[in-house]
Amino acid sequence: MFFDPSIAGSWRALVTRLNSRDTVSRWAALEPALSGLTRVEQIQSVLGNGGDKDRSDAVLGALVRLAAADGGGNDEDALLLALHCMSPAVFGLANDLCDLSRDIVALIVGELTLQIRSYLRRGRTRAYAENLRLETRRAVLDELRPSVRHHPELGEDVTGDGDALRLVTGVQAGPDESDDEDVDVVDLLLWAVRSGADLDGVRLLVATERARAEATSEAAAGADGRVASAHGISERTLYRRRERTLTAVRLAAREYLAAAA
What we know:
The chain is mainly α. It has helices at about 5-10, 10-20, 25-30, 40-50, 55-65, 75-85, 85-95, 105-115, 130-145, 165-170, 185-195, 200-215, 225-230, 235-260. It starts with a helix and ends with a helix.
């Protein structure tokens, strides 16, 4: 939750107001996903325990529908509660994008508010938290670095050659696919790490891709060996860890692409 009241209002005041007015029970009459919940603390528990992901997704979806401006309830309290409950995602994005603005948290919260308000018009009915996070990140980057998409050399480079499709699927991208604006490689790899991929393995994978891309044709054959030596491991170990990491990233990519669709 946001404990700084300047971000999305006072958390304590919001909890007191909603509980005293029996607001959650009123919402539950409108949203079956909230059935059995009567207090804000119960919603907080469902969204914060990291247990039943389907249940958590359904509860956040109910708040989004209640808060949405188009076809929803346009409920200000539901919006505030959704914003507070998504504070971990906000701070995660702020940490990733902190170099872009001194007011990055305020910018992210403002954009997240717009994304929640307009969520229903996009017709998505699952993965609410991740879809909102992805759309918010994309919009903030568009706002603060609008030239990146048209000038890839100014963007975040993690594959060396920029071939995201090959990194994820093992298949060389075609001339049209390599410019796919919907594939954010940095975000995909962060998703993979959050999904269980080994962070050091991802770093090793990226280092290998970069070394291969930067090597001249004469030195390309030794690129993997140089990476292995720099990391204090044998080439055999490098290939084993690389394949294990690629498998984890490819599995995570399926969920990532489904959520971003």
